[in-house]
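Budget justification aside, the reviewers requested a transparent look at the raw inputs and outputs of the sequence design task funded under Objective 1. We therefore reproduce one unedited record. The lines immediately below are the structure tokens for a 187-residue chain.
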């Protein structure tokens, strides 16, 4: 099975679970995030990142990693490792940084901080709170930080119950463009 077919299979088998207490499923949430990126005329690799950004929530066990990593594995990291071997940095780094982007935005944008829900404020505290000056500088040094902030905004609005979106197949070409050339050849 190709990487993209494998990923679509996870969407179909695991994606009907609710997205963190929101009125959408995980698959709906990720399709809405990708649609927000498309409507914003994001580069194809960022649309791919938007579709994939919560893959770690979707995939509870990845065959090649799960045994050695054990039960305490952070799903986000498992998802990231899987993606990083298969997709180019422009698609993977925004995924890796999209939680960090929240801490960044809370430090630089008071309006963003003010509109967070109580649950989101609590998770912000658990994540370490808004960035300090040194953390801001380190975040800005990553060439993909601006894409990660864009992805964060798409992620934040992708919780609309009943919103119609294109299906998974619509996004196949975006994912194909984001595959690592060496990985594509090996499939
Ligand atoms: Fe998300």
């Amino acid at each position: 099975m190709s990487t993209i077919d494998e990923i679509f299979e996870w969407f179909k088998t695991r994606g009907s679970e609710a997205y963190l207490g929101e009125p959408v499923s995980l698959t709906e949430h990720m399709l809405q995030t990708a649609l927000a990126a498309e409507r914003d005329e994001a580069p194809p690799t960022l649309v791919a990142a938007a579709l994939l950004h919560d893959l770690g929530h979707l995939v509870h066990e990845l065959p090649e990693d799960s045994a050695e990593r054990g039960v305490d594995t952070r799903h986000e990291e498992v998802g990231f490792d899987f993606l990083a071997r298969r997709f180019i940095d422009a698609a993977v780094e925004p995924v890796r940084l999209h939680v960090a982007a929240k801490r960044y935005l809370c430090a630089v944008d008071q309006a963003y901080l003010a509109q967070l829900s109580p649950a989101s404020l609590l998770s912000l505290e658990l994540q370490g709170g808004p960035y300090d000056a040194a953390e801001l500088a380190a975040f800005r040094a990553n060439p993909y930080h601006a894409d990660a902030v864009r992805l964060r905004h798409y992620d934040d609005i992708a919780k609309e119950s009943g919103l119609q979106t294109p299906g998974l197949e619509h996004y196949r070409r975006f994912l194909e463009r984001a595959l690592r050339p060496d990985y594509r050849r090996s499939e």
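Residues 29, 53-54, 155 surround fe (iii) ion (CB under 6 Å). The CA atoms of residues 86 and 182 lie 9 Å apart. Computational costs for records of this kind are itemized in the attached budget.
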